[in-house]
Amino acid sequence: MNGHPISGTSAGTGRRRGRAALPALAAGVLLLVSACGGGPDRPADGDKGARDSGRVASAVSRAVVTVAPEDGAKAVDTSGALKVTADRGRLTEVTVKDDKGNAVEGRIAPGGASWEPLRHLASATGYRVRAVAEDDEGRASVKDTSFSTLVPEHTFIGRYTPENGSTVGVGMPVSLNFSRGITDPEAVEKAIEVTAEPSVPIEGHWFGNDRLDFRPEKYWAAGTEVTVRLDLDGVEGRPGVYGKQAKTVSFTIGRRQVSTVDAEAHTMKVVRDGELLKTIPITAGAPSTTTYNGQMVISEKYEVTRMNGATVGFSGEYDIKDVPHAMRLSTSGTFIHGNYWASRGTFGSANVSHGCVGLRDVRGAYDGGTPAAWMYDNSIIGDVVVVKNSKDKQIAPDNGLNGWNMSWAEWTG
């Protein structure tokens, strides 16, 4: 009774030992069954909520995410190829980044069935896509893919004016001349954003298929800051020809200066910020070579330049190698410039030029006191020169930076 019989039984009778072990095993099984059933502190095995909860936590989401193009695709089109969709679920998150980490802006459709980028993709660029969708029970499905866009064989750029960081007059439009003719102007214009501070509506207008200008309804306000964002990289401007620019430029509008030439009165009045600065005697186009009427914008300045009539349809009539203080008003050759070859009495009394506006000057442009020198020194690119009372037609809006000769309805129509 003191423990020795157990020791003896263990040594001498194996059968009795086996019988003693069975109740212990049964107890262990009973304990395991009780644990599965919950016991006093757990829900019973028949509790449907507990079973469903366990199934949600471990089951796979029914949502299926599809990304086009397929993972690893190469030479993908920059427009129309990228799309993410969800079946048996809804998209909750889509992130697309290029190989430099820049995000691609996009939008999930109402209801979460699909996602598409808001803009075209860049060419010759790698992209990574991560998309997350949830099924109707909140279970997430994630898909990660990558692809690269095509490397274009043919490209185009837009040569822009004014220059980045420049200060220009109130008449300066944003003008882009494309190196290739554009057959999809909508796609190209969509990739260009022109904004102003203070804000003002700005619209673009195409002149032919290779020039796009932007301007507000009226001249810019003095002091306006203008920003031009060119997102042309990857834009298919014509079949098989893609833009390759991704650039931001900005410029400032300086003081407001508008000079009005009266061809009949032979005078020019220079008005800055509402104040008359100077009235200058001028000579305009002769009766056989009149000066265009209309609003013109100074687009170039040359302290001294050569003017050859042969380049603008006046073959052999003149070739002056040292025209002083010249400022271009049209592509076709209209300038406001110094004139040293006419007599002093011509200015303010007669029109004798081949269509330009002439101001008294000296040969060599060395005298800063002449009317032409004063005008040159007090003008900047983008200033406006208005010609009136000339016996000629109005200048064409695409002849120089002269879109102001179109009404706002014509410009935006």
From TrEMBL:
Pathway: Glycan biosynthesis; Cell wall biogenesis; peptidoglycan biosynthesis. GO terms for molecular function: acyltransferase activity; peptidoglycan L,D-transpeptidase activity. One of its GO terms (cellular component) is extracellular region. Pfam families: Big_10, YkuD. The active site is at residues 337, 356. The keyword Cell wall biogenesis/degradation applies. Residues 257-388 form the L,D-TPase catalytic domain. GO terms for biological process: cell wall organization; peptidoglycan-protein cross-linking; regulation of cell shape. Keywords: Acyltransferase, Cell membrane, Cell shape, Cell wall biogenesis/degradation, Lipoprotein, Membrane, Palmitate, Peptidoglycan synthesis, Signal, Transferase. Transmembrane segments: none annotated. InterPro entries: Big_10 (IPR041280), LD-transpeptidase (IPR050979), LD_TPept_cat_dom (IPR005490), Transpep_catalytic_dom (IPR038063). Gene3D superfamilies: 2.60.40.3710, 2.60.40.3780, L,D-transpeptidase catalytic domain-like (2.40.440.10). PANTHER family: L,D-TRANSPEPTIDASE, L,D-TRANSPEPTIDASE YCIB-RELATED. This is L,D-transpeptidase. It comes from Streptomyces pacificus. The lineage of its organism: Bacteria, Bacillati, Actinomycetota, Actinomycetes, Kitasatosporales.
